[in-house]
Specification:
This protein is an alpha/beta fold and 274 residues long. It has two domains: 127 residues, no CATH class; 120 residues, HUPs (Rossmann fold, 3-Layer(aba) Sandwich). It is 39% helix and 19% strand. The chain contains nine helices and nine strands. Helix 9 links the parallel strand 8 and strand 9. It is globular, with a radius of gyration of 20 Å.
Length: 274
């Protein structure tokens, strides 16, 4: 990432006030000169001497360090302290490693650079299987987002075995006194049934939900159904369970196969990834 997302930091700082959190680790993972060259497919056409590479990396580090410290000072107040942390991105490290290192409970992240952003979250594209992230996270496109969360759409797969994965989102919604829109999208032209309604009611009862609504609809695809519901309900946040790298990529950065804009500008709460 070229620099920390200002929008993500503003969102996280405001969210911390609502949640009663007094410290935020402002983590900036930067790409070395060699890594940037590899990502730009310049490996075979660019030679950088070890001495020049060391010099350029030092300049990158100092530039990012100054930006990071400035952001931390600007957004620290008497209730929330911003702790800047800067290092080079390591392919051997995962989001889970950083979450354990800082003893963090929630990750807020965002950025404009599609490939490096997704690689930092899910691991190298060369890996056959994306990293499993064991912590809840909120992903932002680098667009202005609502900082007051009063309505959250939780997309539920009634066939998902691990329904406990949504527990962090439910606790999050309770702390914010937010209304939960429980949404189930039926795909492949299947009609909504009474069994579907009862399944959502049972889910709400098992999770001891109080402030919620039940919503079911049919659509050609999950993505289209969710997009249509969001455009009508106008929530402040979308919540997903196990969205996968491809689905999250389309939601945050848009679907390249569609002629019209399809990316969301809302924060997306990810309960769990596989």
């Amino acid at each position: 990432m070229n620099r920390p997302s200002e929008i993500s930091l503003v969102f996280a700082a405001d969210l911390a006030l609502h949640l009663g959190v007094n410290e935020i680790v402002l983590l900036n993972l930067i790409l070395s000169v060699k890594k940037q060259a590899l990502d730009a497919n310049l490996r075979d056409n660019l030679f950088i001497s070890p001495q020049l590479e060391k010099q350029l990396n030092a300049e990158i580090l100092q530039r990012h360090k100054a930006i990071l410290q400035k952001q931390a000072i600007e957004h620290t107040n008497d209730k929330v302290r911003i702790l800047p942390y800067l290092e080079y991105f390591k392919e051997s490290y995962s989001v889970n490693d950083y979450m354990r290192k800082f003893e963090a409970d929630l990750l807020v992240c965002g950025g404009k650079e599609r490939n490096s952003f997704l690689e930092i979250i899910f691991g190298s594209a060369a890996k056959k299987k994306p990293e499993r992230i064991n912590y809840p996270m909120i992903v932002l496109s680098d667009e202005p987002v609502p900082t007051t969360i009063e309505d959250i759409v939780l997309a539920i797969d009634l066939e998902e075995r691990n329904q406990d994965a949504v527990d962090p989102l439910i606790e999050f919604s309770r702390l914010l006194n937010a209304h939960l829109h429980l949404l189930h999208v039926k795909v492949q032209s299947r009609d909504v049934t009474n069994e579907d309604i009862e399944a959502l009611r049972s889910f709400a009862k098992n999770k001891n939900l109080v402030d919620y609504s039940i919503n079911l609809l049919s659509s050609q695809s999950f993505e289209d159904g969710l997009e249509n519901y969001v455009s009508k309900a106008k929530p402040d946040m979308i919540a997903l369970v196990n969205p996968g790298k491809g689905k999250l990529d389309k939601m945050i950065f848009g679907d390249k196969t569609k002629a019209t804009e399809s990316k969301t500008e809302l924060p997306v709460f990810i309960c769990e990834t596989v």
